[in-house]
Amino acid sequence: MRLPDWIKEETRKNRGCHDTRKILRGMKLSTVCEEARCPNQGQCFERATATFLILGDTCTRGCGFCAVKHGTPGAPEADEPARVAEACLEMGLKYVVVTSVTRDDLVDGGAMQFAKTIEAIRAAIPEAKVEVLTPDFGGDEAALKIVLDARPDVFNHNVETVPRLYPEVRSRAVYRRSLDLLATVKRISPETVTKSGIMVGLGETFDEVTDVFTDLREAGCDLLTVGQYLRPRRTNLPVKEYVEPEIFGMYRARAMAMGFRNVASAPLARSSMKAEEMIHA
């Protein structure tokens, strides 16, 4: 399908650059911006911000929508948390977003590396706010508690799509497990802000999307992002529909009426895009 004009215009604005990439290469760090081929990469790098991708650049799952390579990853690097913290300091960040590949090969799913990274960032920049965007840890509550004990300010976990499309889009994930993860965060740490995101354009219906909103609110989710799926590589799932901008406005209105504290809903809205502005608003 050909890109519609409203997406072409937005992506044209996102071609900026900054020495962010130089800092990241110097620290030997990966970002989800680059690995997932995010259309907002240029805009974020120009603003000297990025979403750090820890635990390597190889995922143990192979979701149909994702450009991150999958296979057998290497062992976690002991100095990675310190390198992330040093990069944050050099970039002058006061709000940091940390995500990871899924590591089903690790006993704790990589939870301890998340905790160490949060602690390293706080040690380097005590006033920094930290948002984590985690995998589902296989539903392991003990692993989840390791991350929460490090006190992230925002806990993000994306449901990505509607439950009917999980076999095609997220074949090794479980919709209910993702909802339970978010609900468990609220049970264990009620003060932690929770966040989730969904892509549209994969063949879902309007009602299916708003049903996901209902499920997320029942799980205590505070913040929501809704964005257009854009095929990152030819090997990924094709786009079924380019959703009109007006529909994104309708999604936002519906979600806000349900009680979400803030909603970013637009074609190029992404889970980590302008995360600091979203939480402050």
Can you walk me through this structure?
With 281 residues, the chain is α/β, with parallel strands linked by helices. The chain has a single domain, classed as Aldolase class I (TIM Barrel). Helices cover 40% and strands 14% of the residues. The protein has twelve helices and eight strands. The protein has an eight-stranded mixed beta sheet. Helix 10 links the parallel strand 6 and strand 7. Helix 6 runs parallel beside helix 7, helix 7 crosses helix 9 and helix 10 runs parallel beside helix 11. The mean pLDDT is 90.
| CATH-defined architecture | Alpha-Beta Barrel
Q: Class, according to the CATH hierarchy?
A: Alpha Beta
Class computed from helices, strands and strand pairing: alpha/beta
The largest sheet, given as strand count, sense and whether it forms a barrel, is:
8 strands, mixed
CATH topology: TIM Barrel
- Please give the share of residues in helix: 25-40%
Descriptors for this entry?
14% strand, single chain, 12 helices, eight-stranded mixed beta sheet, 281 residues, globular, alpha/beta, TIM Barrel
Write a compact overview of the structure shown.
The protein has 281 residues and is an alpha/beta fold. Helices cover 40% and strands 14% of the residues. The chain has helices spanning 5-13, 20-26, 32-35, 41-46, 80-91, 111-124, 141-149, 166-169, 175-188, 206-218, 245-258, 275-280, and strands spanning 30-31, 51-54, 95-100, 129-133, 154-156, 193-200, 223-228, 262-265.
